[in-house]
Amino acid sequence: MEGGGGAGPACKHHSHGPHQPQARNWHSIHKDQSKIQAAFPLVEDYSSCDIVKATQYGILERCKELVEAGYDVRQPDKENVTLLHWAAINNRLDLVKFYISKGAVVDQLGGDLNSTPLHWAIRQGHLSMVILLLKCGADPTLIDGEGYSSIHLAVVFQHMPIIAYLISKGQSVDTTDFSGQTPLMLSAQKVIGPEPTGFLLKFNPSLSAVDKIQKNTALHWAVTAGNVNAVELLLDAGSNLDIKNVKGDTPLDLAHQIQNRLLIHMLTQEEKMRIRKNSRLLRMLAKYEFFLLLLSSLTLMWAIGYIMDLSSDSWLLKGSLLLFIFFGISLLTRQFVELKNLKYLPAIFMLSSIFWLSMTWFVWFLPDLADTIFQIPFILSVMGLLYYFYKTWRTDPGYIKVSEEERRKSIVTLAEAGHLDFRTFCTSCLVKKPLRSMHCIACNSCTARYDQHCLWTGQCIGVGNHYYFILFLLFLTMVGVWMVYGTLLYWSEHCATTYRQDGAWTYFTQIVSCSPWVLYIFTLVSFHTSWSSLMLIIQLYQIAFLGLTSHERLNLMIQSKCSKHAASLRKTPYNHGCFQNLADFFQCSCFGMFKPNIVDWTKQYTLTFHPAKGKNVHCV
Ligand SMILES: [Zn+2]
Ligand SMILES: [Zn+2]
Asked: Looking at the structure, do residues 242 and 147 belong to the same domain, yes or no?
């Protein structure tokens, strides 16, 4: 190779060596530049080196000197590699600009694989070089000697930022290569593991597209490669199970041919599930699933209390009846409740609890509490509890939603600014993350000013419903306190014992035999009251004294433990003093005493508010 002999191992490998895909993450691209620079120790005397070497080392002055002396930048070396190729593979941005200004052909094919400089830059994962070459007019649809276009190469070498950038710049996610394979098929076949198949699925590729030769869909390719993760993702995305390839085989037939038991199991289960979903009865059940679940939960809770309240003295009988009910219910749930609807169970438990608490109040306690002073606050508390539970549950917590167009725009902007990394960009939602937001895996979305994922509602608590959540906790605590009061009153009226006279044990056995139902409800009340009051206190402390969310506080505490310099929880840019924090949180001016800051946390990316207070910035 002319002048390329001293190119060093890195260059040799990239131009002529085997092209093995390497596992890479989003971060590694930033390291490539330094890695390549490290592979080429600085030359002290570059005045005599030839132009190929000078290009590889990125010595702009020497290259300019040689070009001005008459070297033709379009001239390829013996192996048909141009200077632009060398500059592209080594990420020499200035040299690429210089050569193109001097007339270098941006889409020149060269090297063993008949590739363009863009292909070389993509294999190496140089996003900044890809951006520059595209700006200079490089054609990403050109196919190299292996039959791959640019996006296919990015898939094979797993460079997710480049895939995202190419698609956002208008490359179709269903671009076909020489054999008619789309990037999704190629990923399912060549890259074992969930990525980049999962990543590509976010761009809504065609699942039923087939290649030119085998007429395989992406699912066929994943099965032939034994790529379990890809098969799982493709099934979740709704791939068709009945499409036949050129030999008349469905994906399941292929799984039988390669005798992969796991895949056979996955495909047959999926088939069964889809048939079941189409059954009329089950579809109707699914429609009213929530109400059916609520009804069964109400019955279950009543049944437990009823069995405990039975006049029989045999706890063995009661115990076995309870066990029988538990097994029956868990069997029914497993059979009829879809996995994704299990998240409703805590909400259903909460609603049933509220129902039976109120019933107990009205049926058991009301006769003793004739005074309306007790009735009105209790009824108001229950109504408030139901209202704020509903609001917490149904209000959008601040999920970050962007249109396809906005998403593409933001990917291009971030990539071109060199900020396409996971601290500012959510690789799951493909959106720029606002300040204080977090990606919730359960909701599969980024949530603005994320506090926590609430078990009771199966939703996130974020900027949209945090306020309602606090009020829900407050009302739950209030109802709990009223119930405890009612229970104590009931015991003192109806159980012929007092704690002072008979001691703890007799008192306990008396209240058990006096009314097991009341004791049962009391246990339920104690559970709800203790967690809600504790959480309310913690939440109010965080909001008023720290100005932080639970997630931020936890992060800061972990950071403090890991680093030598303990980060103060109070010195964050979000803490504006107790009263101002409360005014900001509840958006309340308290009759003009405070001026709440209005910040749209779904669109806030920088700390531009309250500049004077933003001195002690901790990364939260
Ligand atoms: Zn996200
Ligand atoms: Zn969530």
From this structure: no
Nearest ligand to residue 400 Cα = 1
Is residue 55 situated within a structural domain? yes
What is the maximum alpha-carbon separation in the chain? 112
**pLDDT over 90 percentage in the chain:** 14
Angle at which helices 499-514 and 466-494 cross, to 10°: 100
Question: Cα 136 vs. chain centroid, distance in angstroms?
Answer: 35
Q: 169, 118 in Cβ contact below 8 A?
A: no
Active site residues: 454
Residue 606, CA distances (Å) to 268, 436, 448 in order: 50, 10, 14
Contact of 220 with 255, CB cutoff 8 Å: no
C-alpha to C-alpha distance for 191 and 195, rounded to whole angstroms: 8
Ligand found nearest the CA of 446: 1
Count other C-beta atoms under 10 Å from residue 278's C-beta.
8
Q: What is the ipTM of this complex?
A: 0.98
Q: Which of 444, 461, 478 is a domain's end point? A: 461
Between CA 50 and CA 55 the distance in angstroms is 9
Q: How remote is the CA of residue 348 from the centroid of ligand 1, in Å? A: 27
C-beta of residue 158 within 8 angstroms of C-beta of residue 195: yes
Q: How far is the CA of 534 from the centre of ligand 1 (A)?
A: 30
Structural domain harbouring 183: 178-278
Based on the fold, state whether residues 264 and 315 are members of the same structural domain.
no
Q: Which residues of 13-39 are buried (b: 16+ CB within 10 A; e: fewer)?
A: ebbeeebeeeebebeebeebbeebeee
Contact 221, 251 (CB under 8 A): no
pLDDT surpassing 90 at residue 101: no
Give 340 Cα–ligand 2 centroid separation in angstroms.
Answer: 13
pLDDT value at residue 425: 80
What is the CATH classification number for the domain harbouring 25?
A: 1.25.40.20
- Could you report the per-residue pLDDT of 388-443, keeping only the tens digit for each? 999 999 999 999 888 878 888 888 888 888 777 766 788 778 888 888 898 888 88
Cα 259 to averaged position of ligand 2 atoms, centre (Å) = 39
Closest CA to 460 of 481, 482, 436, 489: 436
**What's the CA-to-centroid distance between 401 and ligand 2, angstroms?**
14
Contacts with 8 (C-beta within 8 Å, 6 or more apart), sequence order: 39, 40, 56
The stretches of 279-403 forming alpha helices (DSSP H) are: 280-287, 289-309, 315-336, 345-360, 372-394
- Gap from CA of 350 to ligand 1 centroid (Å): 29
Q: Each residue of 47-66: pLDDT tens digit? A: 677 777 777 787 777 777 77
Return the closest-CA partner of residue 148 out of 167, 120, 127, 188.
Answer: 120
Ligand that lies nearest to the alpha carbon of residue 439, given by its number in the listed order = 1
Q: Two tokens at 266?
A: 């996955």
CB-based contacts of 474, cutoff 8 Å, min separation 6:
536
**Beta carbons of 249 and 257 less than 8 angstroms apart:** yes
Output the CA torsion 288→294→298→303 (10° steps).
70
Identify which ligand lies nearest to the alpha carbon of 445.
1
Q: Using the mean position of ligand 2's atoms as its centre, give its distance from the Cα of residue 613 in Å.
A: 30
